[in-house]
Amino acid sequence: MAYIANTPEDVRAMLDAVGLDSLDQLFDMVPPEYRLDRPLRIPPALTEFDLTREVGDLLARNEGADRRACFLGAGSYDHFIPAVVDALASRGEFYTAYTPYQPEASQGTLQAVFEYQTLVAQLTGMDVSNASLYDGGSAVTEAVLMALATNRRTGRIVVAGSVHPEYRRILRTYLEHLGPEVVVVPAVGGVVDAKALTAAITPDTAAVVLQQPNFFGGLEDVDALAAAAHAQGASAIVSVDPISLGLLKRPDAYGADVVTAEGQALGNPMSFGGPYLGMLACKAEYLRKLPGRIVGQTTDRNGKRCWVLTLQTREQHIRREKATSNICTNQGLLALRASIYLAAMGPRGLRQAAELSTRKAHYAADALGRAGLPLAFPGPFFKEFTVKCPKDPAAVLKKVGEAGFHGGVALGRWHPEMADHILITVTEKRTKDEIDGLADAYKRALGTV
Amino acid sequence: MYKLDLQPLLFEASRPGRSTAVLPPSDVPDAPLTDLIPAPFLQDAPAPLPELSELDVVRHYTNLSSLNMSIDGNFYPLGSCTMKYNPKRNERLASLPGLGAQHPYQDESTLQGLLAILYGLQQDLAEIAGLDAVSLQPAAGAQGELAALFVAAAYFRDTEPGRRRTQVLIPDSAHGTNPASAHLAGFETVTVKSDSRGLVDLDDFKAKLSDDVAVFMITNPNTVGLFDPQIGEIARLLHDRGALLYLDGANMNAILGVVRPGDMGADLMHYNPHKTFSGPHGGGGPGAGPIAVRAKLAPYLPAPIVGRRDDGTYFLDDDRPRSIGRVRAFFGNTGVLFRAYCYIRSQGPEGLKRIAQHAVLNANYLLSLVKDVYPVPCGPRCMHEFVASCRSLAKDRGIRAMDVGKRLIDYNFHAPTVYFPLIVSEALMIEPTETESRETLEAFAAALIAIAAEDAESLHDAPFTTPVSRLDEVKAAKTPVLRWAP
Fold it and tell me: What burial class does residue B217 get, using C-beta atoms within 10 Å of its C-beta: 0-12 exposed, 13-18 middle, 19+ buried?
């Protein structure tokens, strides 16, 4: 029996101790009319050997970034993961533990979370970070809820149309039931329309939501946009790419009040979109409304420095319906991986990843321009950029795929007005040869489609 | 083992100039960086991250890990969390590039193996629930609750235009996430009392059931470890009023293959695959929170859902106009869902039922071993877990649940969940799971009984063998230090 230790002798002795005759009697609290009188209709059991072969075969059918050079991004990135991340995070002492409710027996996890919070604060320039949220998308919504509660304004949330469309969709799903009006200000020329954004911010606006670099890859004039938010007393919430913080201005330097991020790029596999890492850091004044777990430093009875879950009166298991959020289980193991990644890369390694991505992305933009896919927007970009495709993107991407590339993300599915636009992403993992090959594949595809 | 001394922080171990070389030099033509990105967008100085050698990093985290109790090292009977063995075979499969290297926006033709797995999981979860449709999207149980309540709200908006059901009923024994989720979904929460047996107080339920009620959220088996046999009647009363029954699937481990939520009247539910289906808890996640619903609610599920065409190919169905939308950016917590699939495939129908049988057997056996010293107010029997009380130990000898929990750590056992559920005073919520052996249960019971006979004064200082002694939690909350600073 897989993973069950009880032998038939054990079962008899244990049933005797309980005073029962059979395993079925254990369920006599369950009225017979509800009990299932047949076996579940699911596939039969597999041994470890058969499972490994069968599931391994299914996985081998997928053609991911290991088989085709990957130029896909839009919130999920194929960055390099150093071996130490896998080796250390796969220690059973980390991944088979749970939320550190008993701090005396969980100092390893607690210190790692405290270090994660510090690393995130260092990276973003914010005062505090929580221990993690579900993903970069829901982190934006949690940040908005936090701003609504902190600013005691319930009127309006202003969102740049250059924020990831799925992040905006999550916000709509959550806020639909809570009242505040969500105003989306469209992007013009690959960045949000600054004038329209400023005009949309009313005195009852709780927060302005931006993304830097934005969904189209472009860099927003975040200093001016944050100032526009502050002019009306609204919070500036900025969703960032953590790898970009190896190169780009830190969010505190341009006036962000709350910083969210999808932390997947920090040492976590793409894994078809999850589990990912929602990062949330903020200025100190938001602390009391910060959602999720937080680890704090304290001392034990001997005065030794140590760590413990703290400020739990914000949380659902204490405050129930009055909690700042309903989150319980978070993304602990992914936060651990992000910390190990940052510790292994250090300031120079992170800079190198950011700079290599930038250089290669710009090289790729030139190469694709020569291949017939010009940049769609004139502004500066980091590792992602949008091109115009003169022929049907779906057909072109199919050809590029057949040539052995994950060529890009067509934007028409979210932005009908951009039906001829493709978002291209280049990380430090892409070589010059791969980029040249991609440009060549696009060129040939444009010639044949 | 968790006996090493504490480590310095990464930041204290940092030395300027140390690093681990990871990336190669650029292979594309050089250009001044400011030609690529204008200077105003660039940082003046790098983020002040720590600088460490690779061995520094390896030793740091290896030594940190040794400060943790874990399922791999210890019996971990944390009630309500289902801390069962996390199979290594699933970890090895999950580490393959066929999962890890897949981008969420890859063309579907390159994802057929993975989509087949996820489709299979949707089918299996629907069958195990006795419900019709599944969305794998929510990232954790609490997000599953929230998404399901959004589904309920959208359903009522469509089917009952012009009026609004404003209330969600929740038993006082429920997990805190239930009322928190209901509040976040825009509902008013109304608490239903438990009766003296620990079950839903049916009179109180009837008194609070009105046409304003949208959903009743029930955990069955509930948090005191009892199966509430009134569930059929509760479902009937709700359905007569047009309301829905939600089942919090936190305790599915107790009933796999024995009784299905849909068969006892539930209309929607969430699973916790990191509990029931052996996903590792990761020191606090990741989890996943797939939801299953009746057919009439299926159009409202979060999208996308994996579909299967007649030719046997799979696709992501995001064209669902009545869907509530999304609760996270991409498909779901695929890594966790994948492990659940591997686990269900390893068990088969008989294996899943055996899990429930042995989880319940182990809990009842352990209950029988400790009940004379630690009374179980909602006993004498239980499902997969039980809640013992230190009330009389506290009154007679001054030994509190917290003392017992802390002292158990010295015996090399993780503590049970303490002081929850709130309806049992001095609660020790104990869930042994099916993967523990009889000897482990007996050793744990012996430790519990020995502790009850120990000197009370000295127990207030337990544990004695851990890297740190009891922590000053008040200080942590009063003067929060939430990050290292130089």
Answer: buried
Q: Which residues neighbour B483 within 8 Å (Cβ) at sequence distance 6 or greater?
A: A114, A117, A118, A121, A127, A128, A129
Mean pLDDT of B83-91: 98
Work out the minimum CA distance from B77 to partner chain A, whole angstroms: 11
| Contacts with A88 from chain B: Cβ below 8 Å | 57-58, 61-62, 65
Average predicted confidence (pLDDT) for chain A = 96
- Chain A residues with CB under 8 Å of B67 CB are 106-108, 111
Is B468:A300 a contact under the CB 8 Å cutoff?
Answer: yes
For A108-124, how does the pLDDT look when each residue is reduced to its tens digit (9 = 90+)?
999 999 999 999 999 99
> Do B284 and A33 lie within an 8 Å CB cutoff?
no
Distance from CA of B396 to the nearest CA of A (A): 25
Query: In DSSP terms, which residues pair with A282 in a beta bridge?
Result: A128, A258
CATH of A83-340, one of 3.30.360.10, 3.40.1170.10, 3.40.50.720, 3.40.640.10: 3.40.640.10
Provide mean pLDDT across the span B409-433.
Answer: 95
What's the rounded Cα separation, in Å, for the pair B64 and B157? 51
- Mark yes or no for CB contact A5/B150 under 8 Å: no
Q: What mean pLDDT do residues A24-43 have?
A: 96
CA B385 from chain centre, in angstroms, equals 15
Same topology between domain A69-79+346-448 and domain A83-340:
no
Put simply, whether A270 touches B (Cβ < 8 Å) is yes
Which tokens is B370 given? 């400790």
Segment B227-244, tens digit of pLDDT: 999 999 999 999 999 999
pLDDT in tens, B136-158: 999 999 999 999 999 999 999 99
* Model pLDDT, residue B107: 97
Predicted confidence (pLDDT) at residue A1 exceeds the cutoff of 80:
no
* pLDDT tens per residue across span A328-344: 889 999 999 999 999 99
Return d(Cα A331, Cα A235) in angstroms, integer: 26
User: Any chain B CB within 8 A of the CB of A108?
Assistant: yes
| A interface test, pick of B72, B106, B121, B322 with most A CB neighbours within 10 Å | B106
Query: Structural domain boundaries of chain A?
Result: 69-79+346-448, 83-340
**What spatial distance separates the first Cα and last Cα of chain B, rounded to whole Å?**
31
Question: What is the rounded average pLDDT of the residues B405-409?
Answer: 98
What contacts A37, CB < 8 A, 6 or more positions away?
none
Give per-residue pLDDT as tens, B434-461.
999 999 999 999 999 999 999 999 999 9
Nearest residue, CB atoms, B352 vs list A40, A145, A380:
A40
Q: Measured between CA atoms, how close is B456 to chain A, in angstroms?
A: 18
The average pLDDT across A276-298 equals: 97
Among A57, A134, A380, beta carbon nearest to B38:
A380
Domains identified in chain B and CATH numbers: 10-65 (no CATH), 91-346 (3.40.640.10)
* DSSP 3-state of B57: helix
DSSP 3-state helix, strand, coil percentages of chain B (rounded to 5)? 40, 10, 50
- Residue among A272, A301, A310, A385 with most chain B CBs within 10 A, to mutate: A272
Instruction: Tell me: pLDDT of B433 over 70.
Output: yes
Q: What CATH architecture does domain A69-79+346-448 belong to?
A: Alpha-Beta Complex (3.90)
Interface test mutation site (partner B, options A117, A222, A298, A337, max chain B beta carbons within 10 A): A298
Residues of A in contact with B85 (CB under 8 A): 3
Q: What ipTM was predicted for this assembly? A: 0.97
- A99/B101 Cβ within 8 A: no
Nearest CB partner across the interface for A300, out of B101, B227, B469: B469
Write out chain B residues lying below 8 Å of A173, CB-based: 150, 302, 324-327
